[in-house]
Amino acid sequence: MRGLDTNVKRIRRKVFKEIAKAGFQSSDETLVADIEAIPYKIVKERATYRESIYRERAVASERVRLAMGMSLRPENTAVHITSGLEASNIDEKYYEPPLMQVIPSACDACETKMYEVSNMCRGCVAHPCKEICPKGAISIIKGKSVIDQEKCIKCGKCKSVCPYDAIAKKERPCARACGVNAIESDEMGRATINNEKCVSCGMCMVSCPFGAISDKSQIFQLAHALKEGKQIIAEVAPAFVGQFGDEVTPRKLKAALLKLGFSEVYEVALGADIGAVAEAHHYAEKVSTGELPFLLTSCCPSWIMMAKKFFPDMIENISQELTPMVATARTIKKEYPDAQVVFIGPCASKKLEASRTSVRSDVDFVITFEELAGMFEAKEIDTKECEGDSSFHNATAAGRGYAVSGGVSSAVGDCLKEYYPEVEVHIEHAEGLSECKKLLTKAKAGKLKGCMIEGMGCPGGCMAGAGTNIPFTKAAAELKKYQQASSKQLPPAELAEIQLEKRTISFLLIGNLWFFFM
Q: Packing angle between helix 7-25 and helix 219-227, nearest 10 degrees?
């Protein structure tokens, strides 16, 4: 369901729009009443998707709380929807774990993984399902196959041999999408998230057809800060292309952001350019010489969180280079020390990256493309009608390619070949957390020595993230065009000579391109 414009997406967009409107328009005197009215605006005279208007409004109320950055209310209590609003109504409000939360009243308590014989069973003579079952869990009753769920070990062998595809595999969509097995069940059979395992990639959220899983948002705090006229600078991830309509060029999007109230707009691909050279430098100095057995790229927060949680002995192999989001933010803060910075991108887990103690002083807000679309609607800004005087700074194709799976390692590999031609490059990459775990297992076993290893939590990479607006295939095609239109394919060779270990951020002008280094 990722990228599809479903009813779940439309409901989320309504919530974001109304919350943004409250941030932009509500006064201190009317704020509580305006927030309390939102569920009634979304669910009007009758329920559309659930059995009662009361349940539907209860679900909408919990969505409102999460969109305000607050946690869910305890079940079966009379806690008001705006309880805790005072703590949320500040610009400095950061995301508090857990980021991903299951709304109990929205969960349909889908069955957990099991195999079940459907009415497609023909009662064939061979009964291959019965013959192959290693536990004797299949019996023939009245000529039809029946699975004893107490004996079944969910191996799926019966399904694989059925000539009529009569055996169905039932599985929770959220659990199937979770690559770290963080989806569990409560006492009522509803989904819950094990926060010891969860890495906040958001794939469960975009896979639940009931919209029962949602993440917290800073959309209200950001709208409120913009209303106050504060100096806020937007840094936009390269995955933005195509996210706001076919006719919306970088120039139009920048104009729309300025109209929304931002003081300036930067392209995060500039930080990715420096990251590519920094990683190439790191690989050449540490990995190719044998000092490190392999190097894990550091751009995807969910990938890094998974590595630290499940493979803690690999921490030293994680690149210490700044992510493009942080490098860009630090550059902005150096030029505009009194400004606040908002990262706008496709990623849910960037919200938690920004809330880390080491990053808080650099990135003040994180919102997704989906949330930004709600803000545009709240201010009645039509992005395709916006016209501006300038586009983004001119990053390279390499930096912009970070938005797709394989793009980080490809950019680093190309830089290595260009600037360190004597170094032999070995690259591995995986997308989706289950595949990432397999790759890390191979690395732990010593099978990937000398490799640059890239992991992306979302299948497809950032352009398929939980906060995107369009299908991945379309987004990837738009990114390819954007890369081809770049005036430069790689960052200049001069960047390879910079001592990146100093880790201070400055501007560097080479030709007509601005870059920053650490």
A: 30
Please provide the size of the chain in residues: 518
Distance (Å, rounded) from C-alpha 296 to C-alpha 316? 9
pTM: 0.90
Contact 95, 352 (CB under 8 A): yes
Using CA atoms, how far apart are residues 65 and 62, in angstroms rounded to an integer?
Answer: 5
The β-bridge relationship of strands 114-117 and 232-236 is unpaired
Report the DSSP beta bridge partners of residue 116.
Answer: 168
What is the rounded CA–CA span in Å between residue 69 and residue 342? 16
Q: How far apart are CA 405 and CA 411, in angstroms?
A: 11
pLDDT digits (tens, 9 = 90+) for 455-492: 999 999 999 999 999 999 999 999 999 999 888 888 87
Alpha-carbon gap, residue 304 to 326, rounded angstroms: 15
Q: Whole-angstrom Cα distance, residue 386 to residue 249?
A: 10
In this structure, the number of other CB atoms found within 10 A of the CB of residue 91 comes to 16
pLDDT in tens, 58-106: 999 999 999 999 889 887 676 778 887 776 665 555 666 789 999 999 9
Q: Decide if 42 contacts 14 (C-beta within 8 A).
A: yes
As a whole number of angstroms, the distance between CA 102 and CA 213 comes to: 4
Element (H, E) at 419: helix 407-419
Closest CA to 482 of 200, 249, 258: 249
- C-alpha 77/C-alpha 49 separation (Å) is 23
d(CA 127, CA 174): 33
Q: Is 370 helix (H, G, I), strand (E, B) or coil?
A: helix
CA distances from 441 to 132, 305, 313, 410, 452 (A): 30, 15, 12, 22, 15
Q: What whole-number distance in Å separates Cα of residue 156 and Cα of residue 140?
A: 18
CA distance 335 to 354: 20
Residue type, 404: V
